[in-house]
From TrEMBL:
Catalysed reaction equations from the record: orotidine 5'-phosphate + H(+) = UMP + CO2
Similarity field: Belongs to the OMP decarboxylase family. Type 2 subfamily.
Protein name: Orotidine-5'-phosphate decarboxylase
One Pfam family linked to the record: OMPdecase
This protein's pathway: Pyrimidine metabolism; UMP biosynthesis via de novo pathway; UMP from orotate: step 2/2
Keywords assigned by UniProt, alphabetized: Decarboxylase, Lyase, Pyrimidine biosynthesis
GO molecular function, one term: orotidine-5'-phosphate decarboxylase activity
EC number(s) stated in the UniProt entry for this protein: 4.1.1.23
Residue span(s) of domain Orotidine 5'-phosphate decarboxylase: 19-280
Superkingdom, natural source: Bacteria
Signal peptide range: none
Length: 289
């Protein structure tokens, strides 16, 4: 893919040693911790502070849109300003919206979050393919034509998801493994053999991926599969263990931490972001040395 593809932009982040995806999750207790109101203005302030701390340090930020949606139109206006700050800072944004629907409706979600010029334009979005991988087709045009990215839930960090995501399909593969392989197949068709793909998956760092039929020892695929990995920090996984957890499928890893970075207020935020960014960079560098 060209340097302007989402995968190309991710590759540039990785080449600069940046693998952290800093979460923007304005939970009510965190806003209180920051001395901010549990309202749109508080969420905006937290978001803009995270963007400022993450610029040039993290590979991306991931606003969890639910925490803005709580405040209705005011929350969306706040989020738009956070997105504008991130764009201006040259920081990649993964909009954590986890959208899924029949193809025609999903296309409208994809337009909302990925279309160039949309008020909520991000660089990538999270998506749910419970209606089938092809239901995400509305996003594929933005991936191919506008340099956008997509992260499809495969094996999520929450323990209650296991039953659904480990379930076997007619072809014997687990649902989670099929998501991984569908994303790899999309990338292979879009940009055979080169760099980093633009369609990735979400794999929880809290999991034993072998349990989902996902072989972390397999040789790296080309293009590399972007993996958005939540579950570090507050949910218990240690970022220092990232290379062991993800093995051969962790070549294009974005390690997410949200609450563990946000807790403690605005004072010290820049140090916490830098600390987590350094920790994931050294964990991956050590494993590749
Ligand atoms: O897609 C996600 O980002 C996601 C998938 C998943 O499997 N688990 C998961 O925790 N997330 C999100 O990642 C973030 C994790 O936040 P912390 O547990 O505070 O680091 C939240 O915004 C979750 O919504």
């Amino acid at each position: 893919m060209s340097a302007r593809s989402f995968g190309g932009r991710l590759a540039a982040e990785f080449a600069a040693g940046r693998h952290l995806c800093a979460g923007i999750d304005p939970h009510a207790p965190l806003l209180a911790d920051w001395g901010l109101g549990d309202d749109a203005a508080g969420a905006e302030r937290m978001g803009r502070e995270v963007v400022a701390a993450a610029a040039g340090v993290a590979a991306c930020v991931k606003p969890q849109v639910a925490f803005f949606e709580r405040f209705g139109s005011a929350g969306y206006a706040a989020l738009e300003r956070v997105l504008a700050d991130a764009r201006e800072a040259g920081l990649l944004v993964v909009a954590d919206v986890k959208r899924g629907d029949i193809g025609s409706s999903f296309g409208a979600y994809a337009d909302a979050w990925l279309a160039p010029g949309s008020p909520l334009e991000a660089d990538a979005m999270t998506a749910v393919a419970y209606q089938g991988f092809e239901s995400l087709v509305g996003a594929f045009a933005h991936v191919r034509d506008h340099g956008k990215g997509l992260f499809v839930l495969a094996a999520t960090s929450n323990p209650e998801a296991r039953e659904v995501q480990r379930a076997a399909r007619d072809d014997g593969r687990s649902v989670a493994r099929a998501m991984v392989e569908d994303a790899e197949a999309f990338n292979a068709e879009a940009a055979a053999g080169s760099g980093v793909g633009s369609v990735g998956v979400v794999l929880g760092a809290t999991l034993d991926l072998a349990d989902f039929g996902i072989d972390v020892a397999k040789p790296a695929v080309r293009p590399a599969l972007p993996v958005l990995a939540p579950g570090f920090g507050h949910q218990g996984a240690r970022i220092e263990q990232a290379a062991q957890i993800f093995g051969g499928i962790g070549h294009a890893l974005l390690a997410n931490e949200s609450r563990s970075i946000l807790a403690g207020g605005a004072v010290g935020l820049a140090d916490r972001v830098r600390g987590r960014a350094d920790a994931i960079a050294s964990a991956l560098a050590a494993s590749r040395a």
